[in-house]
Amino acid sequence: MSGHNRWTKIKRQKEAAGAAKGKLFTKLIKEITIAARLGGGDPAGNARLRAAITLAREANMPSDSIARAIKKGTGELEGVSYEEALYEGYGPGGVAMLVECLTDNLTRTAGDVRAIFSKGGGNLGAPGSVKFNFQKKGVIAVKAGPSEDVVMEKAIEAGAEDVIGQGAEGFEVRTEPAELHSVASSLEKGGLELGEQRWTYLPQSTVKLEGEAAKKMLKLMEMLEDNDDVQNVHANFEIDEALLQALA
Fold it and tell me: 202: which strand partners?
């Protein structure tokens, strides 16, 4: 598992267990709202909304909070209008980074993201400066239980691209973005227990970090993810498991 993927899992465990849960819910509500605004409030006909609802349920968000967020997106309830923004930059050690944001003020968010990069030892880049290093993919978490051979067989039958073992945490099935929900549906019908389903940016190459550079990189990730307008941070760093656990 890449250093960035492992860091993401550690961060989510902290969010689910502690005070950061409120911040996580805020980010999920934003995603549900904009998904409903752009594609309508019916999850059956809105793939992005289905993925957002799955993430919210995995985080144990109350059903009424999900319903309110959908209604705000469709205009049935009054709510804030959010815009999407994608920022590109470099972190310590030359790590390539993509920062996905949802904001009600693009000027504020751009300034905040730039300031965080600068404070964290990185720098914001021009559009297109690092995005070519990443591929957008659908990822589906399969919970532990079945063997890797069973998951691989069912994933191939469903039209998935790859299966990545995650040890005791199960498996990650990767798909083309447009195939995310059809593959997930097929896996469920095949008897597999699924976790979150989402789109992500996977790096095509990685940068190995050690020592102070690794410490600074994780601090920059924390600062970005702590910003209310930042939804997701993608990066191409690798950090040894023991060091990552110690720093986390």
Answer: 135
Among 5, 23, 3, 2, which residue's Cα sits nearest to residue 14? 23
The continuous run of DSSP H or E covering 165 comes out as strand 162-165
Phi, psi (5° rounding) for residue 72? -65, -35
Q: 133-203 falls under which CATH superfamily?
A: YebC, transcriptional regulation domain (3.30.70.980)
* SS3 call for 126: coil
Residue holding tokens 């860091």? 7
The structural domains of the chain, with segments of one domain joined by +, span 3-74, 83-132+204-241, 133-203
Query: pLDDT digit string (tens) for 43-86?
Result: 988 988 998 999 899 889 999 999 999 999 999 998 888 999 99
CB 178 within 8 A of CB 117: no
Span 83-132+204-241 CATH architecture: 2-Layer Sandwich (3.30)
User: CATH for 3-74?
Assistant: 1.10.10.200
Q: Decide if 3-74 and 83-132+204-241 have a common fold.
A: no
Number of neighbours of residue 112 by Cβ within 10 angstroms:
18
Counts of helices then strands in the chain (DSSP H, E): 9, 10
- What are 157-170's pLDDT values in tens digits? 999 999 999 888 89
What's the half-sphere exposure (Cβ side, CA atoms, 13 Å) at 109? Answer: 21
Structure tokens, 29? 């509500």
Question: Would strands 230-235 and 207-208 be described as parallel, antiparallel, or unpaired?
Answer: unpaired
